[in-house]
Amino acid sequence: MISAIRQKFPLLNIKAFTAVEIDYFSRISGLGLEEVLTKLKESGLQIMPGGGAEIFAEGIRNQLCPEKISGERWREVMEVAHHVGIKTNATMLYGHLETFEDRVDHLFKLRDLQDKTGGFQAFISLAYHPKNTEIGGFYSSGIDDLKTIAMSRLILDNFDHVKAYWIMLGEKISQTALLFGADDLDGTIIEEKITHMAGAMTGEGMTREDLIYLIRKAGKTAVERDGLYNEIWKG
User: Fold this and answer.
1) What beta strand segments (E) does the chain contain?
2) Which residues pair with 162 in a beta bridge?
3) How many beta carbons lie within 10 A of that of residue 166, not counting itself?
4) How many CA atoms within 13 Å lie on the side-chain side of 140?
5) Distance CA 100, CA 228 (A)
6) For a FRET experiment, which of 62, 128, 214, 229 has its CA 20 to 30 Å from that of 4?
7) CA angle at residue 187 from 106 to 219, to 5 degrees?
8) pLDDT tens across 28-41, in order?
9) How many alpha carbons fall within 13 Å on the CB side of residue 27?
10) What is the pTM assigned to this prediction?
C-alpha cells in the first residue's frame, strides 16, 4: 500500500501507522521492530502519528486502554522508528482518570526520549471526550486545556512544535492556545470521525480561510507547512 502511494504520488508526505499498529505488524509477521520499520521506510513511509500513547502511568493505562501496548512498548517503538529515520509525533490523552502527577510524568518521559533520539516533530495534548465511552466523566475545561498546553510547552523544551488540536479543543480555545505556547492548529481536516464519536462539539472540517482568520486574529502570522514542517506559504 505504501509503495503504491509513493509511486502514484512521489511528492506526497506519507504519515501512517501508530506505534500500536507497528507492534501488531511485528507480532503477526514475526519480524523485529527495526526490520518492520525499515521495510516501511524503504517503501516510502516518512512520518508516524503519535496515537496510542494515551497516558504512560501503568495503573491508569490498565484501566483506560488495557488492550493496547504498554507505555514502555510505545516508547520502544518510537525509539526504533527514530533510529531508522522515521519522524514521529507524540501525544498525551488527559482529563479522564489520571492525576496531574501522571501528566507531568508522561511529559518527562517524552522529553527524556527526545533527548536520546531527537525524532519527535510535535507534541499534541488530546482532551478526553466522555460520550459513548465506558469510563464516562466530563469534558475538560478551557482553563485546564490552556494550562496543559502551557505546561507542555515549558516541559518539552526539546520539542520544536506544540499543537493545539482544534478538533478536540474547539476553534476559540485553540486560537487562544496560540498565546499559551502552541504554534500549530493542525490542518483543515475533511471529515474527522474518532473524536466526534466521543462527543466532539466542533465541526468536522475547517477551511484554509477560516484557519488563517483565527491565526491572524490571535496576532500571529499564518504559515502553511507540509508534513515535515517545511514552510510552503507564509502570510
Assistant:
1) 47-48, 87-94, 120-127, 161-163, 223-225, 231-234
2) 123
3) 25
4) 24
5) 31
6) 229
7) 90
8) 999 999 999 999 99
9) 9
10) 0.92
What is the DSSP pairing of strand 47-48 with strand 87-94? parallel
Q: Which three cell numbers stand for residue 162?
A: 506544540
Identify which of 51, 21, 52, 87 has the alpha carbon closest to the alpha carbon of residue 29: 21
Q: Is residue 128 classed as helix, strand or coil in its secondary structure? A: coil
Structural domains of the chain, ranges and CATH numbers in brackets = 2-209 (3.20.20.70)
DSSP 91-114: EEEESSS--HHHHHHHHHHHHHHH
Q: What is the pLDDT of residues 101-157, one digit of tens each?
A: 999 999 999 999 999 999 999 999 999 988 888 888 988 999 999 999 999 999 999
> Nine-digit cell at 208?
484554509
* Other Cβ atoms within 10 Å of 155 Cβ, number: 17
Section 162-186 average pLDDT: 94
Q: Which position has the grid cell 475533511?
A: 190
The type of residue at 24 is: Y
Computed on alpha carbons and rounded to an integer, the radius of gyration of the chain in Å comes to: 18
Cell numbers found for residue 11: 511528492
Residue 36, all three cell numbers = 518492520
Q: What is the share, in percent, of the chain residues with pLDDT greater than 90?
A: 83
pLDDT (tens digit per residue) in 205-223? 788 899 999 999 999 999 9
Beta bridge partners of residue 47, listed in sequence order: 15, 87
Distance of alpha carbon 102 from the chain centroid? 18
